[in-house]
Amino acid sequence: MLKTILSISGKPGLFRLISHGKNMLIVESLVDKKRVPAYAKDKVISLGDIAMYTDADEVPLHQVLTNLKNKENGEKASISTSAKPDELRAYFAEVLPNFDRDRVYPSDIKKLINWYNLLIDAGITDFTPVEVEEEAQEEEVQSDA
C-alpha cells in the first residue's frame, strides 16, 4: 500500500498515485482529495522506499509505522509534532528502541508522526507491503496442507 503513497517536496501532505502520463504523475492529496500533476522536476518519493536508521541497519518505514500503530492502538499519535526535541526522541524510542540517535533528527520524527496521522485520517491503517502480504498468505496455504 505504501508504494502508491507519495511525498512530494515543496507540497504539504501526502499524495496517492492515481495515474501517470507523459513526463508527469497524476496524484491525489490524502487531505483534500484534490488531484494535481507532479512533474519530473518535482522530487517525488514513495513511502515504500523510505527506511529509518537504527544502530544495526535500516528498518523499512512500513515496519516503523506498524510499530507506531501498535503503540497507539490504531489511533492518532499521542504526541504533538510541536513537542520538544527530547520529548520526541523519548517517544520515538518507545516506537523504535534502537534508532540511531545521531542520524535520526527531531525533524525526521516530526515528519513521521505527521505522515502517520495523515495516513490514519485517510483510513489507511495497513502498512504491510503487498509482496509481504502475498508471501504470508502463501505460507499459510502451505502450512495448512
Report on the architecture of this protein.
By secondary structure, this protein is α+β, with helices and mostly antiparallel strands. It has two domains: 46 residues, Roll (SH3 type barrels), CATH 2.30.30.730; 81 residues, Arc Repressor Mutant, subunit A. It is built from four helices and seven strands; from the N terminus they run E-E-E-E-E-E-E-H-H-H-H. The protein has a five-stranded antiparallel β-sheet with strand order 4-3-2-1-5, with no helix packed on it. Strands 6-7 form a two-stranded antiparallel ribbon. A hairpin with a 2-residue loop joins strand 2 and strand 3. The chain is globular.
What is the CATH domain class of the largest domain? Answer: Mainly Alpha
Q: Can you give the mean pLDDT?
A: 86
SSE-based structural type: alpha+beta
Tell me what portion of residues adopts beta-strand conformation: 15-25%
Helix coverage percent of residues? 25-40%
**Do you know the CATH topology of the largest domain?**
Arc Repressor Mutant, subunit A
Taking the alpha carbons of the first and last residues, their distance comes to 29 Å
